[in-house]
Queue: 2 jobs
Job 1
Amino acid sequence: MGRMLRWAAMLCIAVTVTACNKGGVDAKRIEAAEAGEWLTYGRTYDEQRFSPLDQINKETVGRLGVAWWTGFDTDRGQEATPLVADGVLYTTTTWSKVFAFDAKTGKALWSYDPQVDGGKGFNACCDVVNRGVALWKDKVYVGALDGRLIALDAKTGKVVWSIQTTDPNQPYTITQAPRAVKGKILVGNGGAEYPVRGYLSAFDAETGKLVWRFHMTPNPTGAPDNAASDKVMKEKANATWYEGAWKDGGGGATPWDPITYDVKSDLIFVGTGNAGPWNGKIRTGGKGDNLFAASIVALRPDTGEYVWHYQPTPRDDWDFDATQHLMVADLPIGGKTQRVVMQANKNGFYYVLDAASGKLLAADAYVKVTWATGVDMATGRPIEAPGARYEGGATQQQTPGALGGHNWQPMAFSPKENLVYIPAQTLYMDYADPKEFKFIKGAWNLGLGPSILAPTSVQPTPFGQLIAWDPVAKKARWKVDFPEPWRSGVLATGGGLVFHAAGHKFMAFDAATGKALWEYDVGAGAIAAASTYAIDGEQYVALMVGFGGAGGMGGTEPRRKGRLLVFKLDGKTVPTPFPAVVTQAPLDLAAATPSTGDAVKGQALAEQFCNTCHNSGGYLPVLARSPVILEPVGFKAIVIDGARQPHGMAGFRRFFDAAAAEDIRAFLLAEAKKPPPKTQEMTHGR
Ligand code: HEC
């Protein structure tokens, strides 16, 4: 038994038999972070995703095997981090479903399905994912894809309260794990591609009553919103927005992932999404910084009061959300210990900020960056490369692209090594102005030319890297390369290990050197980060399996029903293999009912409404290869009437009519006659 594990076990036994069931999760427990538990998304408030457990270590990891596993009823991307409290493991799957298991045996305790309308899948830019629950006292909290925040009884899974946190008539989503801080449940929203207007809300954990709300962009109507953000909008943000299409949707800036609480400075750090529409010329006439889009914002958890902000990407033109993992740590900088908040931003720079003041301490490229040559440390602003804002025509081989140098996949920190492990990626993208732009309410409104999906330059092959970043030396100590750019989050442990998945392999690396020590074929792609916990003297590692998310939707990996795999030393369980992938028979075009539609109109409609999901080698159906396009009645039933709505394919009646659907079919039939395009995997993501 590892030292930390023995200590954790002793603590429980020493007090009383029920000492490990301490009447629910509270701030003390999350802060004290008992070694055997994982109580919030990033394990503890500082979100380091470091567990001191060391039974599974460099010497023993070779004995790691499956202790128990379970399969879920939904496919597409599984992004949740399993939480473990009082011997119960809580996780979520796509479509915001919640599951509770006995963490030792895998026995199912309860499950909860919020029954999200499948049509809401249209509002999820980047798959119908969910990243997990929050725990507080006797309740479990989940954010549903349709914008509800739901409190469940931790023992039974029964609904205690449910609040609609967004206007259900607008394309808002929730995919993030809510966070529990000081008796409040914090949750934001997504939807900046459409765009909506982002905000963060704090609800009373007991009653679900709204305590405060902070809007991330000014109100386009000029009307007051709420006490928390109105004042700072007037002082700092209003003057950074000009006339433009942002007024149609609200400017984006949706805080859709990190909310990190720093106990020492009593601040929460929130990352906000891209400005919307993406194209700054269309959004605000190419003027202003557009606060607080693509920003890190520090707020008081009690009141939502603004304290500081830092904007890595002023006037975002590229979909550079600042929604990557925000991690708090104590670092030895300049001879003293400094409390910092850090982010490997989508834009390719690794930022280190003083936690209390927001002062910029470091900003260094952790991947290849072509849109800027560096960050001016005096002003904190990027030094932009000429042409990066596609002012002279389409960019060529720009990197990072919209998927970022790093996306939502969580990093991890080892306080032993003072290293941050970044699941990084290098992908290229061509940005260009559109020929014309018309805002379509409720649909994607990027304001870009079609080059986002059809590159205008020959793009280098994308790839991935696990980077051990030294935030003090401001450089990588080691890197491991992968052919797959879009991979899993990371877990670091006291056993000197870093856990990470790429392709179908779940792997453990030496935290100090990057040496590969163990791998296991999970049978499908995994994108979530693993968590670890201990029960009765045994350490477990839990991983959600199921490929998808923004990078998955642009890829060729097939959809798989999700799984949870839980490992321990000498685990001997062998999961059932996934069913074989069925390759689709070629279309019999001779049997097609000829279309009366206009293929040119159909192409424009497909680019506007369909390609955001149906753009790839097979994650979602490749429409030009689908037998459904062979005849008009079934096609219309799906595309207009929503026959597949329960499976996430909304009907489009609110955007166009049956004649337009036939135009799309005409285009797809014409496409079907062409030889299959050479897919360039994941160069066109979001
Ligand atoms: C938000 C994502 C999304 C968008 C946008 C979208 N679809 Fe779909 N579509 C899906 C999903 C998910 C499925 C698979 C449903 C299932 O498993 O039954 C699907 C399935 C289909 C199918 C059935 C294909 C088959 O072989 O089973 C057709 C046809 C289709 N979509 C047409 C369209 C058209 C036309 C558009 C644009 C007007 C469109 N879709 C836009 C998500 C989307």
Job 2
Amino acid sequence: MRRRIALTVTVLVLVAAGVAVMVARRAARQSSETAATVAAGKAIYQAQCAVCHGDRGNGKGSIAYLLSPRPRDFTRAVFKFRSTPSGELPTDADLLRTLDNGVPGTSMPSWAQLTDAERRAVIAHIKTFSNEWKERTPAAPIAIGKAPSCASLTDRGAQVYVKAGCAKCHGEGGKGDGPSSTTLKDDRGDPIRAYDFTHGGRMKGGSKLEDIYRTFSTGLSGTPMPAYQGSYPDEDLWALACFVQELGKSGAPPPAPSRELVIAREQLPPSVTPDDTIFDRATPATVLLRALYARDAAPDAAEVRAVSDGKRLAVRVEWRDSSQDARPLRIEDFRDGVALEFPLQQGEGAAERSFYGMGMHSGPVNIWHWKADWQLELSSQIAGKATAVRAGAVGNAMAAAKRSSPIEDLNAIGPGSLTPQPAAEQNVSGTGAWRDGRWRVVFVRDIETRYGGDADLRTAGKLAVAVWDGSARDRDGQKSVSEWLPYRFDGVKN
Ligand code: HEC
Ligand code: HEC
């Protein structure tokens, strides 16, 4: 009997020892995997994220000064979009969701083009910026049941909305204009706006019913948006989500981005105008625009159409802008503008993957910048009214006198490196027209050029769009930008 016990104990000890070795091996393997993952994540982070979030994750990247809201400071380990209770760290699934969707209405783009492994690696790197990730583990996500049918719940949701005091910040009609809305600040002291629910389908935390339920249940840490989990019966909370989603249906639905721009093959007239019917025969492509400095009424999309006869390329960009701003001569006036940007090195590669450039980042780029005031100056010159240009703007008028196009042809290799091409190489022509709250601007250039700084238009490539709204005080880096839009010539496979 005693021997049997001794034997059993020995066996158990051996088994335990074996298990311990296995566990230790697995841990070693995991930690070396983790080190490699973090290193890969660091490389992605430095290339794609640091320009906004900063090399050291403190939110102070080189273009952060242009951005509102400011990029997240990862050293503080405070995250808005969580399935975990208020004040807790997010789960990896939460962070992956944020990378997939980006943060709509802000400069934070979607990173859906990274592979799953790349996204996980960059998340591992983000976690190195704060010890919180070593000291704590994310709490369990809150339970989110199955979303009910909203048919009979919306009215009840409207009552909960009033009872819970949502209107205090979000306003009675949900337009983000409640009595407290003008005084709200986030925990870094920056002004913050309560979401306008009538602007449906563009919620930062996601716009599906489950997303809305999760967002107001767990709250948005670091902002005045409270967590309502447990404050009301579950059915009331679902009813609230139904009501909030319903409010979103009153406005225009979010635009859907196109995957590519197909350049139609058409005869081009000698001078192409914005309303030319050749553009009616080209398939429109939609690019989403992100206002780097978030505000109401920023254009959220632009339509791009392109036509080529094999010798020249004509691209038309159209976007919504309720006012026509072309008077740059007074300091307080800002002008409307639009730019197309082409990477100089097309083809696959790390620089290609970078989301958008506008000389912010990525490799060298060629930028065609149409300026409403340049066009006005040109047209007044043509009408012989150059002398009517206000006194004090003589320098401006002189510069304008040398111009033959309202479009400036530039190069850039990063923030602050914008350089106009030499006068002899200014070879982009075009014109813009504003009507009924929309700008249409045409850019035309020869396909073949001799200058090394010119975009190579002979084959398929990518372009990005930027838009400046003068009445919203946009200028220089303060603008709305798109991500890269791949283009190809009709009938030609990449
Ligand atoms: C163009 C600037 C920009 C770039 C580039 C950028 N971000 Fe962001 N990011 C932001 C801004 C701005 C916010 C804050 C949005 C807000 O508070 O509503 C943000 C927020 C975040 C958050 C916080 C989500 C939360 O729950 O609070 C994460 C995580 C994040 N970014 C990860 C990344 C990663 C990873 C990359 C690179 C792959 C990246 N970002 C690149 C601007 C950027
Ligand atoms: C004290 C002010 C305040 C109150 C009260 C408040 N909110 Fe908010 N809410 C905010 C702010 C500020 C934001 C925007 C946070 C951001 O953009 O980072 C927000 C954002 C949201 C969002 C997220 C939208 C998105 O972009 O994902 C939802 C959903 C929401 N609130 C629902 C509610 C509901 C429902 C109630 C009432 C139960 C409520 N809020 C009460 C201030 C408030």
